[in-house]
Amino acid sequence: ASPIINPITILSTWYAFPDNPMISVWRIVLGLGVALLVALSFRFYPPSKELMKARNTQNLSYEEVLIESSRSKHINKKRLLIHMEKEFSQLLFYFSMAASVLSVVQVYGKPWLINAGITLPIVWAIPILLVLAFFFSICSTSDAIIGKSLSTLFPISSVMGFLILGPMLDIKNVYILKQYMPTSFILRLGITIVIMSYITALGFQFFVG
């Protein structure tokens, strides 16, 4: 939940919803609540398998490469740059796809839905935006702007689910986790976050929205 309490993220959320500044507060409170519940679920029902994969030096991130190199008082700059280039090029694909799909939705999908007068029930609107948050969340600071545009099509509670889930679980995070964690752990973490986010968005709808 750390991206949610980032000062830039808070300001961007406040900027995106100037007519409803409490969205910024609720995003922080509910995001921290979801993170706490997920942590408690792992505390009281810990996974049975080892959390970390056996890693060799080829699987280390560039931060770990830097630490490992500094121990020998010799920083292997070439190796560091190779790891940086590898991770950047792999994540760039997901950033590009997310930006492209969201642009198409904004330019073509949104006007079509408005003209057609299609409205979705809350029980379907929340899962749809949770899926969008997973696949197309670009970053926590820009999610608020995207969420604002989606609020004209979806209930504010489903947008809140989008704002909560995106910084915690998206396809980029899963890609990074997959390099270090077993699939069973990633599935457990992802399902738990999705369920907690869904319940939180429903609660927001009934008690606030």
Question: Radius of gyration, Cα only, in angstroms?
Answer: 19 Å
The number of distinct helices, counting runs of at least 4 residues, comes to 9
Helix content: over 70%
Tell me, briefly, the overall form. globular
Mean pLDDT: 78
Q: What layout of secondary structure does this protein have?
A:
Layout: H1 7-16, H2 22-44, H3 62-71, H4 77-116, H5 122-136, H6 140-150, H7 156-168, H8 171-178, H9 183-207
Helix pairs in contact: 1-2, 1-6, 2-7, 2-9, 3-4, 5-7, 5-9, 6-7, 7-9
Protein architecture, described:
By secondary structure, this protein is an all-alpha fold. The chain has one domain (7-49, 93-207). The protein contains nine helices and no strands. It has helices spanning 7-16, 22-44, 62-71, 77-116, 122-136, 140-150, 156-168, 171-178, 183-207. Helix 1 runs parallel beside helix 6 and helix 7 (156-168) packs antiparallel against helix 9.
Salient structural properties:
0% strand, 209 residues, mainly alpha
Brief summary of the model shown:
The protein has 209 residues and is mostly helical. The chain contains nine helices and no strands.
